[in-house]
């Protein structure tokens, strides 16, 4: 992939706040600790053929033109297990100083470094919402993309760990069956009555348990959250405009009553919002075209890009093709294609907290 002359987080693009996702499911995300997959869980003791490999971080650095991106089929064999270091943030300047201290800045990116820190944060503050329009556009986008990119890579890594676990374990494995329930391949009744997945169910599960290109996730997060300034993002960490019919969602001021008693799904953290988005993309029938195209590209060892997969999201928004065009414009104008080659650092994770937390 030809590198751009400027870093992706320093380029200018046009973002439109839409909260436009309208193909939704009754939405509640519960983190099930029993489904957390570790490196020890995915050791290949059966010599099973796998799409996803374990490798040292040095293997991530050199992507081959017209081939599947390394971070979409490799998991670091030295990913950290320590709890995150908590770092207090007082201002935008303190965030930028932190980025500089860990070599996570425009100069490093321009020099070809695609390593991204394992960085998380609790929430978007009202102060950001109030002041975002007064921040220079380049700086606002830089902060947004640098904070959101690690969340996307962490979420995709979880997806790859789950995919490899399925690949190296039998259809009768309890956790494989639990993953089939999580990804809506089977229901609770089937889980109790059947001791093993069928070959067809396993194939469906692998079709669903896979990454979404960071360029696409970042473009949708910017589009749906208005660069993290929407009421739903600030009140409920909602970055993707997913609807919730459970009664626990945030009610829009102009609710469309003909569509039912819906709200915008809320999440415990921005990371949980990204994980919830991936679950939506990977389970909702409206996005089967995306999953099938992604599977085809993986089978051909071809790049899986946001520009390509965006073309399948005609049902994510009422705007249809206009929505697809907007996402592609965001990806191109902000150089987000480069983030599809990014990979997570093996350094210990960092969790940002505001001075008031």
UniProtKB/TrEMBL annotation:
Family matches, as Gene3D superfamilies: 1.10.530.10
UniProt key word Membrane: yes
Classification via Pfam families: Glucosaminidase
Swiss-Prot/TrEMBL keywords: Membrane, Transmembrane, Transmembrane helix
Chain coiled-coil ranges: none
Top-rank lineage group of the source organism: Bacteria
Residue ranges of domain Mannosyl-glycoprotein endo-beta-N-acetylglucosamidase-like in the record: 212-334
InterPro entries: Bax-like, MGlyc_endo_b_GlcNAc-like_dom
Presence of the UniProt keyword Ribonucleoprotein in the record: no
Segments passing through the bilayer: 7-29
Xref: PANTHER family: PROTEIN BAX
Annotated protein name in UniProt: Glucosaminidase domain-containing protein
Organismal lineage: Bacteria, Pseudomonadati, Pseudomonadota, Gammaproteobacteria, Alteromonadales
